[in-house]
Amino acid sequence: MDINEAPLVKTLVEYTNEGILRFHMPGHKGGKAFPEAFLYNPAALDVTEIPGMDNLYCPTGVIAQAQMLAAKAFGARHTFFMVNGSTVGIQAMIMAACRPGDKLIIPRNSHRSVWSAMVLADVKPVYVQPRYDRVNSMATQVSVQDIQRALDDNPDVVGVLVVHPNYYGMCSHLKQIERVVHDRGKLLLVDEAHGAHFVFHPDLPPSAGELGADIWVQSAHKTLPALTQGAYLHVKGPRIDERRVAQIIAMLQTSSPSYLIMASLDWARALMEAEGRKLIDNLIEAVHHAKEQLRSHLGLLTLDDYDRSEEVEALDPTRLVLDVRPLGITGYQAEKLLRRVGVQVEMSDIHRLVLICSVADDRAVFDALVERLAKMADELPEHRLGPCVEYNEMSISQEIPQQMMSPREAFYSIIENIPLRESVGRICAGVIGAYPPGVPRFCPGELIDKEGIDELLYIQRQGGSLFGLVEGHLVPVVSE
Ligand SMILES: Cc1ncc(COP(=O)(O)O)c(C=O)c1O
Fold first, then answer.
1. Which listed site, 116, 285, 367, 424, has its alpha carbon 20 to 30 Å from 241?
2. Which of 127, 149, 148 is nearest to 139 (CA)?
């Protein structure tokens, strides 16, 4: 049969054949760091719970062994293999830590799985705003002081969730946060989706497990050689009952977990334990070299060139974030132009490109990246539009609107979609915001006010983009 009859297969095959440099997840980068058996005929390894293969939801054999080895490597008391990404890991983590009606401190720019978890578990959010770097138009990290204040103002919370690191590889002062959280007898939950590699090298920021998290989640597929959806959920603290976690995971995940994904989780751990130190040494060196070249040849900036905000303790040296303002284009434009010269990045924002690098990327890949970026820069027209400088001046409110009902109540209300301008005075039923700053302005259950709408429209007029709107212009609100 002709693959043209299967559009998705056709497009994937074409992408593979194009030889695009993959600076996006998954971290195995087209299988480069996989064993032969995976590459030769992966479908042959795709089995189910037949004798000898154990069972993810009551493991006593090979899966139990693989999870135990992972727990040892990541410094956990118990590790669960997740086959639906950190998304389900985060849902399970929150459901395990909280009972219906409990309050949890969360950064306002959390991943959307945090909102779905709040709906599923009926958890009440206490938001902490991440700090905002006005010069570079980006949300950075939550500060220790803000977490401490939130804890003092809400002594009835169950715990605190921290994102460590964020998409840009910025880490918070997690050790200090751990102290203020545990001093008050609360739980520390960490979304370490972007930091699964941290534990394998002393020059990387310390991982959440090393810093005392009670429960933490890592997307192995983002930064390790693991298949998409492969993630780890680790438990350490005495106040998390892993039998309860196991029960919740079995509720949320498929009853037919992929052996390929689970095997890749086992493989990623084994490879990194055996060779991670050397592989990460090489990666850090290659990323550093690429940054130097891009700085000197093209004038591109990286996060190392920014004034470090005080709430950011460390940067992940393997995350390549390129500020393209010196080229006079936006990050969004750069992403499109780069694809034309054969590079696909993970993400772009107004000023930057975010490239996910992993141990599957060798020096030659970085040399090719530098070459292709130079080609892209060469082909730029002489007089191009500069990015919207007004962003730097823009006042981005730290206001948190009034919470009128819980995210779960908002979700289960009758919802209507109305134009943004007409939504003042209504209760938001979605997560609405703008890039920049990429932090929601209105969250589910919150009262929509005029200042917030004006702010969103202003950012949009400056060329920013809004997120969370239905059909691009309607706000989901609770029906009156
Ligand atoms: C900070 C953060 N947390 C969680 C997730 C969800 O991870 P996954 O794709 O493994 O479900 C993401 C995904 O991009 C993320 O960026």
1. 116
2. 127
Instruction: Tell me, using a 6 A CB cutoff, whether residue 110 lines ligand 1.
Output: no
Ligand 1 pocket residue status of 475, Cβ below 6 Å: no
Domain count across the chain: 3
- Among the candidates 375, 390, 405, a domain finishes at 390
More confident residue, 181 or 392: 181
Whether 467 and 367 share a structural domain: no
471 by Cβ neighbours in 10 Å (0-12 / 13-18 / 19+) ranks as: exposed
Nearest to 172 by CA among 140, 136, 138, 149: 140
Q: Is any ligand 1 atom within 6 A of the Cβ of residue 219?
A: yes
Domain that holds residue 144: 36-270
Which of 208, 242, 270 is the last residue before a domain boundary?
270
Residue 31 lies in a domain: no
- Whether 118 lines ligand 1, by a CB cut-off of 6 Å, is no
115 C-alpha vs ligand 1 centroid, how far in Å? 13
348 shares its domain with 254: no
Our answer on whether the CB atom of 308 is closer than 6 Å to any ligand 1 atom is no
Residue 251 and residue 143 share a domain: yes
Which of 79, 61, 83 has the alpha carbon at shortest distance from 70? 79
pLDDT of residue 253: 98
Counting ligand 1 atoms within 8 A of each CB, the residue from 81, 86, 162, 172 with the most, and so the one to mutate, is 86
Average model confidence (pLDDT) for the chain?
94
Query: 351 and 300: one domain?
Result: yes
Cβ of 253 closer than 6 Å to ligand 1, yes or no, is: no
Report yes or no on 3 lying in a domain.
Answer: no
The Cα–Cα gap between 298 and 45 comes to 45
Closest-CA residue, ligand 1 atom 16, reads 167
pLDDT at 236 over 90: yes
Q: Same structural domain for residues 318 and 354?
A: yes
Nearest to 25 by CA among 220, 197, 233, 205: 220
**What does the buried/exposed string (b/e) look like for 192-228 if buried means 16 or more CB atoms within 10 Å of the residue's CB?**
bbbbbbbbbbeebbbbbbebbbbbbbbbbbbbbbbbe
Residue 4 lies in a domain: no
Token readout for 438 is: 């990429």
Look at residue 332 and tell me if it is in a domain.
yes
Q: How far is the CA of 192 from the centre of ligand 1 (A)?
A: 9
Mean pLDDT, residues 267-289 taken together: 98
